[in-house]
Amino acid sequence: MNPSSIRFEGQVVVVTGAARSIGAAIAEAFAREGARVVLADADGAQLEVEVAALNARHPGAAVGAAGDLSREDGALALLAATQKAFGDAQVLVNNAGGGVILPFLSHTPDTLRATIDRNLWTTLWCTRAFLPPMLAAGFGRIVNLGADSVRNGLADHAAYNAAKGGVHGLTTGLAREYATAGITVNTVAPCAVNSPPMQAFLRDKPEVARRFLEVIPMRRTAEMEEVSSMVTYLASREAAFVTGQVISVNGGSNML
Ligand SMILES: NC(=O)c1ccc[n+]([C@@H]2O[C@H](COP(=O)([O-])OP(=O)(O)OC[C@H]3O[C@@H](n4cnc5c(N)ncnc54)[C@H](O)[C@@H]3O)[C@@H](O)[C@H]2O)c1
Question: 3-190+224-247, what's its fold?
């Protein structure tokens, strides 16, 4: 790679939900561009596999931190692990999440709680943990993973959209609060992404798959790298004047 395009040399990047799928693709994208990356996930076993694979491709680039980030103590433990391994983080990617996609009344109390925990509480606690050192440094990039379904009201997404809508709302509020502090806060909102859980979901529910794809003019899901490239752009120094944005990566599906 051309050294001038190694945008994250010397930076520390934390990616939550990085044991698999989109989070793993985001961690790979940052490591490829010179970052030291902390991969965080509740699934410790899969996290070890992903960290080993990333270090095999980019020696010394990655460490793992296992824990439940929907709890304040989990987020604070991630902050401590990051500082111990690499020092302060310049970039936080709140990617942990995942849908429990069901008609609203088919949810149980547990699936409703899990939906909010995975998507909104992880983002709230991690952001609260990592903001103070970013403020002290006068520099920070926070990039959240939201969802285009908040905008288009995709079938069976009401509870998930309540959680991701909270992430979208947090984005604009924090961006304004810290606009003069060197910190930008943005959200990448994908439509259906070609990740392993989405592949399984679309394979098992062909009628739902048809409805998901018919709202996307490109008639396909997003590749994970098409999402990670927007995340790295928003985390880069080039994106210094972009804040408070919810940016759809959706194959044009906001066009009527
Ligand atoms: N796949 C899609 O089509 C799609 C579409 C729009 C938005 N998104 C969002 O993109 C992000 C990544 O999606 P994905 O498809 O890769 O999901 P995924 O389910 O494959 O991976 C999510 C990861 O987050 C981790 N995680 C969940 N809750 C956690 C917690 N409390 N603490 C720590 N880790 C936790 C999981 O263990 C898992 O490894 C999610 O926020 C998701 O909601 C995905």
Answer: Rossmann fold (3.40.50)
